[in-house]
Amino acid sequence: MEITLELIKELRNKTGAGINDCKKALTEADGNMEKAIELLRKKGAAMAVKRADKIANEGAIKSKISDDKKTGAIIEVNCETDFVSKGDEYQKFADSIAAAALNNDTDDIEKILSSKVNDKLTVKETIDEIMGKVGEKTELKRAKILKSQDGFVADYIHFGSKLGALVALKGTLTDESEKLGKSLAMQIVAMNPQAIDRSGISQEVINKEKDIYMTVAKNEKKPDNIAETIVNNKIERFYQDNCLVEQEYINESGKSIKDLLAEFNKKNNNTLEITDMVRFQLGA
User: Fold this and answer.
1) Which is nearest to 277 in space by CA: 185, 197, 200?
2) Distance CA 233, CA 229 (A)
3) How far is CA 122 from CA 41, 110, 116, 269, in A?
4) Cβ–Cβ contacts within 10 Å for residue 13, how many?
5) pTM confidence score
6) Mean pLDDT in each 10-residue stretch from start to end of the chain (284 residues)?
7) CA 208 remoteness from chain centre
8) What is residue 73's predicted lDDT score, i.e. its pLDDT?
9) Using the 8-state DSSP alphabet, how is residue 249 labeled?
């Protein structure tokens, strides 16, 4: 069968692959469009093996919230270069994986990879497909699902899709509370808290911090009673820096997240309470 320019253009429009790759695939498939598409997808799978040892530290963080706002998914998908990750096609591809994680209600990587992105392709097949197009190692690194049966989940993805967060809240969902939820997710992205409150920080972590502070105080020849005071003050500061509810609100200096929630609940007759959170940073 003659491989016409029109046929090559049709395959290119359907797959986004290069002209030469489309011509080779059509030639090998004797002009059969479906077989040519399959060959290009297999090329992507072969690319995965070929580039398995390459480092994929670029990519995108994406999130998706269910229509009822009770479930949220966040994923990290990686590629090799920032140039590829910034492309519209790659960004849409990453969005589709977040949607697949949410639609299948799972953060198990293997289950996501085997799930369908559309009526035809699985996530694994779309990854192979995009690898065939961009020529870079591409992989789904991690995913997380958050739920709130007695409230809602809010998200925030920072410009450039390098940082993102989900936050689950207990309480009544309104336009105002959802807006606050997104502000809290932004707070998590910006300030990287280790836990929601003090109960989420292990005693082992606190003991290590105390040991460091005490060593510094002793090296400075501080008396025991002064050293103890310094350590206690520094531990308080550690909690304030690393517990979300004790952090200063990024949009209003002098106000903690705990104060922000209390003020909002009183004003809006709500009972918002943060129950869970997750923060993804590209490559972290």
Assistant:
1) 185
2) 6
3) 12, 11, 4, 45
4) 9
5) 0.81
6) 82 73 84 82 59 76 98 96 92 95 96 87 89 86 97 96 97 97 98 97 94 90 91 95 97 95 97 98 89
7) 29
8) 98
9) P
**Rg for the chain (alpha carbons), in Å?**
25
Q: Is the dihedral of CA 76, 81, 85, 89 positive or negative?
A: negative
Q: Which residue has the tokens 């958050």?
A: 146
pLDDT of res. 53: 63
Residues in the chain, total: 284
Q: What is the pLDDT of residue 227?
A: 92
Sort 208 into a burial class: Cβ within 10 Å, 0-12 / 13-18 / 19+: exposed
pLDDT value for 47: 54
139 closest CA partner among 49, 72, 40: 49
**Long-range contacts formed by 84-88: CB under 8 A, 24+ apart:** 84/58, 84/134, 84/136, 85/58, 85/59, 85/60, 85/161, 86/160, 87/134
Cα–Cα separations (whole angstroms), residue 98 to 95, 119, 123, 142, 166:
5, 16, 10, 11, 13
233 token code pair: 């003050």
Q: Which helix (H) or strand (E) holds 152?
A: strand 151-157
